[in-house]
Amino acid sequence: MKKKIAVLLSVIMVSLSCFPISNAFATGNIMDIDTGEASDVLTTYVVTTGSESDIAGVKNYEVTVPVDPEEIVLPITFEQKGILYFTSDFAETAASRYFDLYCYSDAECTKEIKVSTYNGEIVIPEAGTYYLKFKVNNYSDVTPTDGYKINFSSKFISGEDKTLTNKVWVCSANADTQKPMYFEVDAIKAGSITINTESEYSTRLTLLNSSKKAISDEVYNYDGKACFAVEKGSYYIKVTSSSDLLRIKSLFTALTDYSGSSKAKAKKLTAGKTYTGFLSATDKTSKVEWYKITLTKSQEVNIKFTGSVSSGKIELELYGNGFSGSITKNIDTVDEDSTFSPQTWSSTKLPKGTYYIKITKKTTNTSGYYYLQLKK
Fold first, then answer.
1. Whole-model pTM?
2. Dist. CA 318–CA 302, nearest whole Å
3. CATH, domain 2-158, list 3.30.530, 2.60.120, 2.60.40, 2.40.30
4. In the chain, which residues have pLDDT < 50?
5. Within a 10 A sphere around the Cβ of 187, how many other Cβ atoms?
């Protein structure tokens, strides 16, 4: 995951617009390297999705800094908060010649915004017009007559809250790592929402309802995937991370619950058939899902119990027919396999008769889905 995000750090960005250079700078101070055309407008590539092809885009310019004075200020307007990623260097290297890049939030260049030249990024705290100053420090005896040429490539990533579209990657800049990001996601019917993330550091995810109230525990998303079961409706994913860049995608899967609502209505398991069940974030802990197994003779039994739970724990209990004690199995991670083969103290076979499977959620914030399959 870190390798993937290292690539993203140099290319991902979203929604940025610029405005023309002031009259103090004549047309020709900026040249579009890709087209070779001179301009008085600085623009940047706009990434609108998190797809690999969109991520690969970049806009390149050559900025001419006048010899006298040895600096130039270019205004640029951001429509959203976020992070501006950039690379910059002299078009032609020369000994004892350097330049600094500054960013200001005012035209008088008195309110400085921090520029991280090591990471090549500028955190833009809010929408508005900012000013980039290129200042050359020439300590050599050679001064170019036509100005100093600087290559400048920039990319902007929006840090605004976004809506996730099913199966579509979205890029987001974490402009303030002390504050969470929010992503709206819709469930068109009852089912599971799987969230995939890519970031330099681990992220923490929380499922919220439409009023942004937490209905799951905070999930430490080390492996890049979290799963929640929900009813039809609108939800938010709250993301907290120390990474300044995040790629996120949601996958919705509709689910049908085959369980019985009471022991008397327990769903009979037919060997070889897979049954789906789920306990949603809004289900009460008192909800119980029931299944039963009927054996016409003594035989070995294998019960496949798999599923995904990121918040809390789904518990299975097997008992009945004078079975000495119950067998308990749990699912509390993504893509977990808790398959088991019940047996008596004296035999690997179960006596003929009826056995019951009881499935519950152990905490209010538990949600997830499971699959049951009986093999004889």
1. 0.86
2. 12
3. 2.60.120
4. 3, 7, 9-27
5. 22
